[in-house]
Amino acid sequence: MPPVKKTLGVVVLVSIVVLILASELWVLTQQGREQILTQTKTPSQVSTTTTFTPSTTSVAYTTTPGTTSSPNSATALPVEEYLGSGGSSAVFNPADPAFLSVADGSVVVRLTTPAGTYSSVYVVVNGTSIEMRRQLKWSGYEMWYARVDGVGPFEYYFVLATSEGRRVYLYNTTERPLFNFDGVDRFPQVRWVVGSVGYQIFPDRFYNGDPTNDLLANRTDELWLNAFSTSRPVFSNWSDPITPLHCCHQYFGGDLKGITMKLGYLKSLGVDMIYLNPIFLSGSVHGYDTYDYLVVDPKYGTQEDLRNLIIRAHDLGIRVIFDFVPDHVGIGFWAFLDVYEKGPSSKYWYWFTIYKWPFKLGDSSAYRCWWGFGSLPQLNTTNPEVRDYLLNVALYWMDFGFDGMRIDTPTDLLGAKDFFRELRALVKSKYPQAYIVGEIWDLDPSWLKGDLFDSLMFYSLGRGILLAFSSGKITGTQAAEALSVFYASIGVNVAGMGFNVVDSHDTSRVLTDLGGGRLGDKPSYESIQRLKLLTVLQFTMPGMPVIFQGDERGALGDKNHFDEQRYPIQWDQLIPEVYNHYLYLTTLKHTLPGLNTSIIRVLYSSDDLLVYTRGYNDEVLVIANNGLIDHEVQLPEGAWRVVYPAGYQAVVVNKIRVSPLSALILVKE
Ligand SMILES: [Ca+2]
Q1: What is the Å distance from ligand 1's center to 136 Cα?
Q2: How far is the centre of ligand 1, averaged over its atoms, from the C-alpha of 264 (Å)?
Q3: Which of 292, 408, 442, 563 is labelled catalytic?
Q4: How far apart are CA 544 and CA 615, in angstroms?
Q5: Same fold for the domain at 18-183 and the one at 198-323?
Q6: Please, what's the largest Cα pairwise distance for the chain?
Q7: pLDDT value at 53 more than 70
Q8: 214 alpha carbon to ligand 1 midpoint, in Å?
Q9: How many angstroms separate the Cα of 386 from the Cα of each of 328, 354, 378, 389, 618?
């Protein structure tokens, strides 16, 4: 998107909102007595920036006296006592993927309880007790998970045990005391994402593989059409200085051939997926002002160039997703020009919302546009013709060979959720492993329930939590709490599909955010240490770390200075320490089995420390220190091998020291 539009918003820190769930929570005693366990005051996983609310249609834990005996009581734990009303509350809603999803090939069941109330929690599956593991903890609540092998129908209920030996049984309904999973995965995970490393490419600024197309942008640049602009596009050599038009109309000549030529570089870096900023005919450097959705922009090459890029990438095992911009177009969009010329007699009149005609191109008062920018007329996506057109565009490019799409500003669309529900159904029916990511900056789990997106661009994680911790703006304890809220709010399946960005074309580069300076500066030792800390976290979160082009080379760029972060990659400049660090992280991501799962457990935190494990058996342990002094950390039981920093390779037990502004990655021996 154009740079003007983005603000990170109020990111992350977390406040817990207690909401009242409509249903009541009941418990069935072994004698068949009916007791109100609690009027559920439901813990909800809500940050100040999410719109998450627990479903009010969740299961009511009711039962009728005498209708059934306690199922499986013989195989469950012995019942010693039952909690009466006012004892405690637990939250479970099997219709919400946050509580039940299929991840990494198994069903993951999760339950939220008040923190510290229960010493152990079991899910009893077809008569067999599986101990649940404490996964996350935040503001008085904790979340437990259990993995049920395979994906098939099963019946289950929960047993919650206190340290004094009391037991609480959690059942479904009066008529059907057992919960039932029917074996149908309604939100299948796009499994290839889980172990992948992503890379974002901003085509004009990546690599110039074909100088013959460099000036073609001159024919279509929006400034020639816009009656409200006197500027003209600028064409620059690869290392020329930034001009005030840098963000959007200063062209450097990068193209699709250039990307193809650099596929070897990307492969050796360990990239598994490329996200391409818009490549279709448009009037700007960024391409979010589409002129034709079905034409590859000549300044980037031909359709054959694109086909060649995708084929070559696939040959190397690299997937490619495109940037889909359904909300708005450019003033050079053919249907919009038809309206501009013909007025109400245009058959595309109702593709837009026109306030007055005739109008001048670029007049934001004449038609509905995106965030008031006259260069970006908004499409009327409540018009079925427009919807069909856009859906066919998405399918066209999927048929062409793309592996998924990143969707621009989805929340701004008219009739947004209806549109994206339709889009998902259409795309997934033909391409079940297509990856669909929405550009939503705050964590809004309502988009992640299985009917809309597989992931959001998780700025809320990468910048809201990880960058905030690495830059010292929040403590380890605040980070642990925020991470817990984040991962409690979304399904484990979604966590594994996370599109985990720490920066992009729309933000400053993280090395700049971490004190490394602006374009052309030499980043300080401390800023590089902080970058390493941040990226260890980014690469060891569930999901796919996505590198913004050049971050792996130590590039700098301040968004507030004409979007410096978009400056062309200077291929003769590289900070080896940074590049080698990224290279090592992609290797770890590919080789440590724990990082190829969707599960995280937050273990411990303090002012400076954040400690968590990855994998269903805690195969990987990460210890991060954002403080300026070193700390001794108690290790979980067993022997641990240090795999980061590289070359360390010691096996340690009991305790380990972690240096200031650094992280350790250990694997279970
Ligand atoms: Ca070129």
Answers
A1: 49
A2: 19
A3: 408
A4: 15
A5: no
A6: 83
A7: no
A8: 4
A9: 11, 15, 11, 5, 49
385 is catalytic: no
Strands annotated E in 408-493: 435-438, 455-456
Q: Is the CATH number of domain 596-668 3.40.640.10?
A: no
Q: Cα angle vertex 329, ends 323, 335, to 5°?
A: 125
Distance between Cα 196 and ligand 1 center (Å): 29
For 413, the token pair is: 């669309």
pLDDT tens per residue across span 540-551: 999 999 999 999
Task: Note the CATH architecture for domain 198-323.
Answer: Alpha-Beta Barrel (3.20)
Ranges assigned E (strand) in 334-434: 404-407
- Cβ–Cβ < 8 Å for 481, 607: no
- Domain coordinates in residue numbering, the chain: 18-183, 198-323, 596-668
Q: Which residue out of 439, 506, 551, 552 is catalytically annotated? A: 439
Cα of 575 vs centre of ligand 1, distance in Å, is 26
Find tokens 């040959």 and name the residue.
Answer: 315
Is residue 439 part of the annotated active site? The answer reads yes
CA of residue 332 to ligand 1 center, whole Å:
22
CATH class of the 18-183 domain in this structure:
mainly beta
How many Å apart are CA 631 and CA 661, to the nearest integer?
Answer: 11
Q: Are 362 and 228 in contact (CB under 8 A)?
A: yes
Write the pLDDT tens digit of every residue in 368-417: 999 999 999 999 999 999 999 999 999 999 999 999 999 999 999 999 99
